[in-house]
Design brief:
- This protein is of the alpha+beta class.
- It has three domains: 230 residues, Beta-Lactamase, CATH 3.30.450; 110 residues, PAS domain (Beta-Lactamase, 2-Layer Sandwich); 106 residues, LytTr DNA-binding domain (OB fold (Dihydrolipoamide Acetyltransferase, E2P), Beta Barrel), CATH 2.40.50.
- It has eleven helices and 21 strands.
- The strands form four sheets. Strands 13-12-16-15-14-18-17 form a seven-stranded antiparallel β-sheet, sandwiched between helices. Strands 7-6-10-9-8-11 form a six-stranded mixed β-sheet, sandwiched between helices.
- This is DNA-binding protein.
Length: 483
């Protein structure tokens, strides 16, 4: 696997030994001084929109306003817990370890360090220049320390777990002042089934910029490891569909199979009818490819799937049930979950509608809503845009990118994933009305019924902005709007 990643081929850019590096080589440039001035203002409580790269400024906002990271932190905290993330990551971490070791040999000539973390930002291994490693250990950049953004602020490892693609953090772009003489670049490796990060790989250098080739090399390295995750996802789907097919003849009720992320892989005719699918949907014959799987719009189902996965871990005979609003306008329907387990890991769930067996699901009580977000952060033309929630009429998802439709135009959200934006904006009166749309209920101008009875929201009558409402969300929306 590692052989398909090209070598870093970094030529030595300085004499060996860190003491030969100029003491101000990272912080003395005009651009670094500008970033440092912006950091001072922002850390003092100001809201700024320019002078810093948008992805870095978005990270600063998370560190200051969401995670409350101490900017004076100079040592990364130890990692909590002894358990590395599941998903049988042995092959993945072995591959990353091989890449890290190979890259470490090459960056050693450049006085740099290669680091691999799990999906929570816990360092699993470091390789590279011994002098750089000793200096890194001063800040606890060493195995079993935590470099998530939530723990240690803006940095290549932690910030890469928050966004997609390679991330570079140079000098005073770090949130914690003690790290301002480091340059780093990281990238996350993501689970193709759930979309969540399972690991990251990072290259750091003390008081000198990284080679230009580093971000592109990281992207190729991540792609190489994600090929293994993709192959595993296909293998898992094969096993889940095999179990589904074995049980199909024994089940007359609506019956479907889901992957670990809650997407439907297969469904019998009764489930296809219940869920309102067409006979052409790939789940009818079995959706092996992750991109072909179907995400059901059943309120509360994602929480039930997460609960069932946790309860069923290592317990092949476990079953549990919940009551969910499957049909619009009708009472909730019992759904029984049974795990598909291989090597003590949950690969997916078999779901039978109308059956109530096993452990009952008890939803957590509503968490008290804290203060509303001061700002919703968007990105436009390489600038950060700070929005009040009331300025946003609706949000529209284009895969993992979310667009905010506002009084100031269409702006890309700094937060990726409509589910994440929904969690941020629900306390502000926003509601999901479609798998791709989240609307501000305070900004709904008109409602219109289509020729087939479908419901459409008009968010701005002047510009004829139409937002479709899926039939599953229509009853709840009517109740909320009082119509």
């Amino acid at each position: 696997m590692t052989g398909r990643v090209p070598p870093l081929a970094i030529a030595p850019s300085k004499p060996s030994g860190l003491d030969h590096v100029a003491s101000d080589s990272l912080v003395a440039t005009s651009s670094a001084r500008e970033v440092a001035r912006a950091w001072e203002r922002f850390a003092a409580g100001e809201d700024i929109e320019t002078g810093v790269r948008p992805e870095i400024l978005a990270s600063w906002y998370r560190c200051r306003d969401r995670y409350d990271v101490d900017r004076a932190l100079d040592v990364a905290p130890g990692a909590g817990g002894d358990d590395v993330q599941r998903l049988d990551n042995d092959v993945i971490f072995t591959a990353l370890g091989g890449l890290g070791a190979l890259a470490g040999q090459e960056v050693e000539r450049d006085g740099a360090v290669v680091t691999v973390t799990d999906g929570d930002g816990r360092v699993l291994g470091t390789w590279g220049d011994p002098s750089a490693q000793r200096r890194a250990e001063i800040h606890n950049l060493a195995p079993w320390s935590s470099w998530s953004e939530q723990c240690t602020g803006t940095n290549g490892m932690g910030t890469s777990l928050e966004v997609s693609g390679p991330v570079t953090v140079t000098g005073p772009e770090h949130w914690c002042e003690a790290f301002h003489r480091w340059a780093c670049a990281g990238i996350s490796i993501r689970d193709v089934v759930t979309g969540s990060p399972v690991a990251s790989i990072n290259i750091s250098r003390w008081n000198a910029p990284l080679a230009e080739i580093v971000p592109s090399w990281l992207k190729k390295a991540a792609s190489c490891v994600e090929q293994e995750i993709y192959r595993r996802a296909i293998s898992e789907a094969d096993k889940v569909i095999s179990e589904f097919n074995k049980k199909c003849a024994q089940v007359t009720a609506p019956f479907m199979a889901m992957d670990r992320g809650g997407s439907v892989i297969a469904a019998n005719d009764a489930a296809v009818s219940l869920l309102g699918l067409t006979g052409e949907n790939p789940v009818v014959t079995g959706a092996i490819e992750p991109a072909q799987r179907w995400v059901p719009e059943i309120s509360g189902l994602p929480d039930v799937v997460r609960w069932a996965k946790e309860r069923a871990q290592g317990a092949e005979q476990w079953s549990g049930h919940a009551c969910l609003p499957v049909r619009p306008g009708e009472d909730a329907t019992p759904v029984t979950m049974r795990p598909v387990i291989d090597a003590n890991s949950v690969l997916g769930m078999l779901c039978v509608f109308g059956v109530q067996e096993g452990e009952p699901y008890e939803p957590n009580p509503e968490v008290a809503v804290g203060s509303l977000p001061r700002r919703v952060i968007g990105i436009r033309n390489e600038r950060l845009v700070l929005l009040g929630p009331s300025e946003i009429r609706y949000a529209e998802a284009d895969r993992n990118i979310v667009w905010l439709v506002t009084e100031r135009g269409r702006i890309q959200a700094a937060t990726r994933g409509l589910d994440n934006v929904e969690r941020l904006l629900t306390p502000c009166g926003f509601r999901r009305v479609h798998r791709r749309f989240l609307v501000n209920l305070h900004r709904v101008a008109e409602l219109e019924r289509g020729i087939k009875g479908e419901l459409v929201l008009i968010m701005d009558s002047r510009s004829h902005e139409f937002v479709p409402v899926s039939r599953r969300h229509a009853p709840e929306l009517r109740r909320l709007l009082g119509v």
